[in-house]
Amino acid sequence: MKCLLLGLLLPLCFPAQKKYYTVGEVLKYARQLTTDSVTVKIRGYITGKVGKSTYLLEDRTAEIRVDIADKYLPGKPFSDREEVIVEALVQYEINRPVTLTANRPVTHD
């Protein structure tokens, strides 16, 4: 009985870590992630800038566009060889490419 109680209470003591998604997973499950209003956390590389605040983020699975406001960019410059962590909301519309909108500061790993 004590083991059962301990097994039920232990997860409450240690909250679950946020899952890291791959870009491929975000693209595959975009419709569901949009309706759930989930903030996805992705590790990847910012490989280019394609607009005023739009960047290309890629990992080993795929590439996606991310809108990052200036206030969420890191204070120190970074290169496309440095892995970053982006937390963002998924933007999904039928017949349009899936994009992300950063809602927290971009951090270095």
From TrEMBL:
Transmembrane segments: none annotated. It comes from the Bacteria. Keywords: Signal. This is NirD/YgiW/YdeI family stress tolerance protein. SUPFAM superfamilies: Hypothetical protein YgiW (SSF101756). InterPro entries: BOBF_sf, CarO-like.
